[in-house]
Amino acid sequence: MTNQHGQVTDLRYLQLLARQYPTVQAASTEIINLQAILNLPKGTEHFMSDLHGEYEAFTHILNNASGAVREKVDILYENSMPQQERRQLATLIYYPEEKLKEVAEHTEDLNEWYKLTLHRLIELCRLVSSKYTRSKVRKALPKDYAYIIDELLNTNYEVHNKRAYYEQIISTIISIDRADDFIVALCEVIKRLVVDHLHIVGDIFDRGPRADRIMDMLMEHHSVDIQWGNHDVLWMGAATGSRTCIATVLNNSITYNNLEVIEVGYGISLRPLALFANEVYSNTDCSCFTAKTLDATSFDAKDLALAARMHKAVAVILFKLEGQTILRNPQFGMNDRLLLDKIDYEKRTVRIGDTDYPLADCDFPTVDPADPYALSEQEAVLMRQLSDAFQNSEKLQRHVKFLYSKGGLYKCYNGNLLFHGCIPMNPDGTLMAFSIGCPPKAGRAFMDHAESVARQGYYAKPGSPEKQFGRDFLWFLWCGRNSPLFGRDHIATFERALLRDQQTWVEEKNPYYRYCAQEEYCEKILAEFGLHGPHCHIINGHIPVKSKDGESPIKANGRLVVIDGGFCRAYQKTTGIAGYTLIYNSWGMRLASHQPFSGLEDAVRENTDIVSTSVLFERMESRIKISETDTGAELKKNAADLQWLLSAYRKGLIKEAHEG
């Protein structure tokens, strides 16, 4: 409890606080510590978005911190070390285990190399740890080497006696064959301290080969938050057993010939789907369902034919299940997307709106024109098998629970508003209201409601109406009309597969994407989320920035930063680059654009980095301190509470614990 001035008045709370700080000395020491921390520089934040399973590029940019690691190497060694040696040192930090093997094969005097490299890594460690408290650095150190690294980081090399001590530690590490392990440990510490906090602004899944590997790395990261993307909530829905979401996941994966993440990554067998497709679709035309590949020559013709049959089988199931979901939820307002019942099989056309369009394919052996959205008996059995497989994938369930624990639809952090898709708006620029399981809600209120229902889809009691509605709502977030994660009028999955007229493929964007380029509307959205001031921004993903056409990721006079620039290789022809990332440190914000990654082997052997162009688009007048951050606000509250604890001790309201 607090009074009108925010002062602690509840003695019960102070008594609980006194258990942690049982004496005047303990409380005083912590106040001094907190006040000192407030004056340290703000930690570095790293923003990434739209990873789409491209785990190699993600790993590299995570390791090099969008160029921040190389920047630190250059700060220390630009005037004393040739560029090639700096590149080798940076590569060692990115990939220590792989680089050590390569160095061992090509270095004559390995012990001398170890000695020089250890000195350099320790200097870098000192540099990147200098803006943190010694306590925080200790917590970042690997358990096995924490004491030794702490000693080396805090030894004064200029003191003669300490110099001998320092050199002896390094010599002993080399002589007992622990140099490789110690170098790996130092490299991991450097990477951890370069970036204090990581933000993933949506779309970890789909298109690229191994989203599961990205999730494994995120689960090991020391400090991360995730704003869900539409592809993420789709997989979250699949993990709940939603047949509609599972069919969509399979349709997406087969479309891009990317089944490795399902079968290898998550151990989900697609043999039942393959058997069903071969039995039911072996004598039908599947040319409309040929998988998209970056290199068709690397795939066997029989495999591609099977993939097309599987694709057609799951697409038809998807059209049925989407119809069932729409009929079950009229509040979604998506009845115009019920298309299977609009097919004229004699004319081979489908009516969309008031127009009949010719179909490229209408040979659907499992569709009953009298009841087009009903699954056949075989389809129902298949979907039960697949639903069980998704729900019983231990790794998928572990990843989805992590997405729920670390994620949400948006985040306000240090003056920035992070979300993946959009804040839905009406054509006149006002916030769009939704009445889906709630009275009309718009803006932040609807985002909060939507996140609550999304959690309900996973955590509600199995078999309950709440569980079913939550599952369906996860699908709505994936592709529903003007969903905040989708941000379009409709998804044209049916049209892309079956209509040749590409005009029917157009998915009209929500007006947000027109208004967000204007500063006044960005400021209104920021205010909706309680953010005010000249250094507040929207950090947005989802819509690839067409860099090759001159489009800028910085919009609305710097109020909006879009960091989807094409991580996914399938998008790179459109964007012209391989992604944007953002670094926000104590000096300001820097946007980096990246060229495609040539691969791990080249990076290790040739010391090649991702070619990046970095632009500092906002520099602060003075260095930002922790006192100016969200963490600082919490520390100030803690210090104020401790001040009241001290007052309670001194007034005799609370007894000090007996020392000794």
UniProtKB/TrEMBL annotation:
Enzyme class: hydrolase
Enzyme Commission number(s) from the entry: 3.1.3.11
Domain of life from the UniProt record: Bacteria
A UniProt-annotated Pfam family: FBPase_2
A molecular-function term among this protein's GO annotations: fructose 1,6-bisphosphate 1-phosphatase activity
Pathway this chain belongs to: Carbohydrate biosynthesis; gluconeogenesis
Needed co-factor(s): Mn(2+)
Coiled coil: none
Alphabetical list of InterPro entries matching this protein: FBPtase_class3, Metallo-depent_PP-like
Biological process (GO), any one: gluconeogenesis
Catalytic activity: beta-D-fructose 1,6-bisphosphate + H2O = beta-D-fructose 6-phosphate + phosphate
Protein keywords: Carbohydrate metabolism, Hydrolase, Manganese
Family: Belongs to the FBPase class 3 family.
Protein name from the UniProt record: Fructose-1,6-bisphosphatase class 3
Organism: Candidatus Anaerotruncus excrementipullorum
Name of the gene: fbp
